Amino acid sequence: MTLRAGYRVRQFLAALGLFHVPVTEEALANYLRAAQIELFRRLSAAEQRHALAVLRTLQEAGHRETVLAQAALLHDVGKVGGHIRLWHRVATVLLQAIHPALLYRLALDNPRSWRYPFFVQLYHAQRGAEMAAQAGTHPLVVALIRWHHTPPEESDLDAAGQALLAALRAADETN
Predict the structure, then answer these.
(1) What is the rounded distance in angstroms from the CA atom of residue 65 to the CA atom of residue 20?
(2) pTM here?
(3) Model confidence pLDDT, tens digit, residues 82-127
(4) What average pLDDT does this structure show over 135-146?
């Protein structure tokens, strides 16, 4: 529990912009095509920093797979257009910990509702997979995005895909 709390504190501080990771077109062009870069650029600054941190963690662990790098950079694109504010993120984390059923009741798929950001938070993996697919992203990357909050053994991925998913999830949870 202490490790998880520390992670959430770091995540909160990063959301406030206290950690800065520069994003260069060259760095993105190493892994993403133009349509994917456009998706990445639609992420908030905090989400871009998080995606780059996930990529860096994977690289430091020795992962060099292009599909994994793309999934790291695009795994949260489903949050784009969700009007998610910091308080939504905090409330989501707290509700997931203490009353998940209330969070699911609170989420509403209506972009004009104050409850919509909770829906986006809960379903961003599926939304992101659809957005990535529309941008012409490789099907394995789309699958990694879709399943990035799911234990690998519960996904529909083969053993190699599950190993990539496990690496992505570990890096995501670290950052």
Answers:
(1) 25
(2) 0.85
(3) 999 999 999 999 999 999 999 999 999 999 999 999 999 999 999 9
(4) 98
Q: Is residue 33 part of a domain?
A: yes
- Residue 106 is assigned to a structural domain of this protein: no
Would residue 94 count as lying in a domain? no
For residues 73 and 102, what is the distance between their CA atoms, to the nearest angstrom? 30
Rounded to whole angstroms, the Cα distance separating 67 from 63 reads: 10
> Which residue range is the domain that position 59 belongs to?
2-82+123-174
Q: pLDDT tens, 2-22?
A: 445 555 555 555 554 545 555
Whether 63 is covered by a domain: the verdict is yes
Q: Which residues contact 1 (CB under 8 A, 6 or more apart)?
A: none
Phi, psi angle pair for 111, to nearest 5°: -55, -20
CATH number of the domain where residue 45 is located: 1.10.3210
Q: What is the DSSP letter of 114?
A: T
